[in-house]
């Protein structure tokens, strides 16, 4: 099977490198200096105890050729629609599409855009682009979670990830699993960006606000018939255990004056809180300030 990984940032770069290392026919899509460095030297993965290089096939999305059996979207959430439009000519109704972008509505968006097979999924990993061509992965955390009703499709994707030695979890309630990841990302992406500091700093000095944000997000989920109340304390526990200087992708985007996922992350809770009649006052305060500073 031929796999496209759209976006070679911290998530996509690592996944693409691991699939390539496992012998999967994989093409990565990126742009700019990052792409040029990968084309010249491959993707370098720096982990806590070692580093290695994967000589991946990489190109701009406009240069895509042939057919893809699987397309993994690892772009920013605001790029999904545009990147799908470019990869669409290389897919058909049998292609499996899945997004690992931040947010809870990416699968819904892909179903609106496509007649392909769409699975919902999320991924747990601490990684980012250290510099062009180099992905820094922190800690041992990695898990790709996905689910759907078609067992044959699930098994096909499962085999691909196993070839790449990528840990997976198949869920019977993937919507809840996506929200379980989202609650942590939403709260700590907002807080790290608002206070311009790391997850460890937020846990140490702003734990009460972190808990309040987590409660607001869980309340919005409950209004949508998704119970993630247990994730409030679990998220705080996770924040206490990961490396102190761990960042979030949205905070890094703010620091580097790049376009951010403020609407998908913080703005979504404000919008849905208003629609559902849920009090999200702290999120609204932080979102309002961050939006004024967002590119």
Short note summarizing the structure:
By secondary structure, the protein is α/β, with parallel strands linked by helices. The protein contains twelve helices and ten strands.
Task: Name a few traits of the molecule.
12 helices; 48% helix; 295 residues; 2 domains; 21% strand; Rossmann fold; N-(1-d-carboxylethyl)-l-norvaline Dehydrogenase, domain 2; alpha/beta; 10-stranded mixed sheet
Secondary structure layout:
Layout: E1 2-6, H1 10-21, E2 25-29, H2 32-41, E3 43-46, E4 51-54, E5 57-59, E6 70-73, H3 80-87, E7 96-99, H4 106-113, E8 117-131, E9 134-147, H5 151-163, E10 168-170, H6 174-195, H7 199-205, H8 207-223, H9 231-241, H10 249-255, H11 262-276, H12 281-293
Parallel strand pairs: 1-2, 1-6, 2-5, 3-9, 6-7, 7-8, 9-10
Antiparallel strand pairs: 3-4, 8-9
Helix pairs in contact: 3-4, 6-8, 6-10, 6-12, 8-9, 8-11, 11-12
């Amino acid at each position: 099977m031929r796999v496209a990984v759209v976006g070679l940032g911290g998530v996509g770069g690592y996944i693409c490198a691991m699939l390539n290392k496992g012998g999967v026919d994989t093409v990565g899509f990126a742009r700019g200096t990052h792409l040029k460095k990968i084309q010249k030297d491959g993707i370098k993965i720096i982990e806590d105890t070692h580093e290695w290089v994967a000589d991946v096939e990489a190109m701009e999305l406009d240069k895509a050729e042939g057919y893809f059996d699987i397309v993994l979207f690892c772009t920013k959430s605001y790029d999904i629609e545009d990147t799908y439009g470019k990869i669409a000519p290389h897919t058909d109704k049998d292609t499996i599409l899945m997004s690992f972008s931040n947010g809870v509505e990416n699968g819904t968006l892909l179903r609106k855009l496509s007649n392909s097979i769409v699975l919902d999924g999320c991924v747990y990993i601490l990684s980012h682009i250290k510099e062009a061509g180099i992905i820094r992965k922190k800690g041992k955390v990695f898990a790709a979670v996905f689910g759907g009703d078609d067992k044959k499709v699930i098994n096909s994707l499962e085999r691909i990830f196993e070839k790449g030695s990528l840990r997976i979890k198949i869920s019977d309630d993937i919507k809840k699993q996506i929200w379980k990841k989202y609650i942590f990302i939403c709260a700590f992406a907002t807080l790290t960006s608002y206070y311009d500091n790391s997850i460890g700093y937020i846990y140490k000095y702003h734990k009460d606000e972190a808990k309040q944000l987590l409660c607001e997000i869980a309340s919005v989920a409950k209004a949508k018939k998704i119970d993630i109340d247990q994730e409030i304390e679990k998220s705080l526990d996770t924040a206490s255990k990961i490396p102190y200087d761990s960042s979030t992708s949205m905070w890094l985007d703010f620091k580097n004056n790049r376009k951010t996922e403020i609407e998908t992350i913080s703005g979504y809770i404000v919008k849905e809180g208003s629609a559902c009649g849920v009090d999200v006052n702290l999120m609204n305060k932080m979102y309002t300030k961050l939006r004024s500073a967002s590119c």
